[in-house]
Amino acid sequence: MKWLKHGLRALGGFVKLSSTLLSLRAFAHSRLKASMRAFREELIAQGLPPGAVDELTSYYRELGEALLGSLLSKIRPASLRIRTGP
Asked: Are 36 and 57 in contact (CB under 8 A)?
């Protein structure tokens, strides 16, 4: 029954790791949203026309989401493999 104990411990660790990665993803997206808001306010403060502000903010969001997707896709919980046997 020792194998069962080790298996459950590994499963518990995997669940904690998955939870941490999901929290990291949520935090990164919230920071992107906050930085987009600050970027938008700065563009408005510089006196850019509303159309330009919308276009630049949209482009900023696309780049940010692509960067987050690239960084976070490398640490997906599904990409982790549990090895069994020798």
From this structure: yes
